[in-house]
Amino acid sequence: MPISNYGVWKGTPTSFTAQTLEQDRSPHITLKFSDGSSKGKQAAINVASTDSDSRLVYWLQRQWNHPITTSLTPLADGFHKATGTDGTGAELSLDYIRTTPPLLDLSAGLVLQDTTPGSGDILDQLEPILNDAISAQASIYIFGSSYGTGIHDIHMNQGSAPTYENAVGQDGALIFHYNDGHFEAVFLAFASQSIPTDDQTGAAESGGQTLGTIAVGTAAGSGSGGSGTTRGGTSGSGNDGTSGDGSSGMSGSGNGGMTGGDNSGTSGNGGAGN
């Protein structure tokens, strides 16, 4: 089943909040960003899977020089729906497996074990990246599924069991463009997702390998990002007029999805996550 309203949202990150598994069975980092409209937007980034294997797989490219960037820089702020699903920049489509040249080396992914502070979990990895982007007022390109006031499914959207949503050429990502011209990219997947995938449906093929067994990357180091962010609190520039209250306004609907709270007024269908 195709991912609904798949595309890329361009904006400027302003702040973020974070949940843990202790706070929600489908925890998220909520990244708030502006796109020049009157209302702030938010991106729901999975912290863990709701599958029995809750681990995430994470790839960071600090100097990302992929040809797709030439299709991103001319975009105006706002959401741009993909015009196709062939995994090319011209159609604003990403595919972790099929895009050429490859977006990433699947074997270089880092398997993140849990959501314990200081353990090298996804927040330990993303916090310094997000803080750097917020401080520098970098542009952000968020690939995923738009739900009106925000975007989710910001991860690999194929290779799951047929009971979950799968698609070809509709993978999620976070791409940052700094004022000095360089790009950074973050890619996320669930350790339970596997390759190869069906070329038509994106569903996992029998006899494949899970990303949890393929990915053998190691962390380059984690840190606090300089903000001392508390789990469930807020870190950011403050220019979006928000402050942390211990809640991201979202609760898990299962399968790695999200349900909008009072801040979003929207609900997700569970997405493609596990």
Structure overview:
The protein has one domain. The strands form 3 sheets. A 5-stranded mixed β-barrel has the order 1-2-3-8-7. The protein is built from 3 helices and 15 strands. It is globular, with a radius of gyration of 17 Å. The two termini are 15 Å apart. The protein is mainly beta and 274 residues long. Residues 220-274 have a biased composition (Gly residues).
The rough form would be described as globular
Number of helices: 3
> In whole angstroms, how far apart are the ends?
15 Å
Structural class: mainly beta
Oligomer: single chain
Low-confidence stretches: 220-234, 238-273
Helix percent band: under 10%
The H-and-E topology, N to C, reads as: EEEEHEEHEEEEEEHEEE
Number of strands: 15
- Tell me the count of domains: 1
Q: Calculate Rg over CA atoms.
A: 17 Å
Spatial sequence of strands, sheet with the most strands: 1-2-3-8-7
Nearest-integer average pLDDT: 80
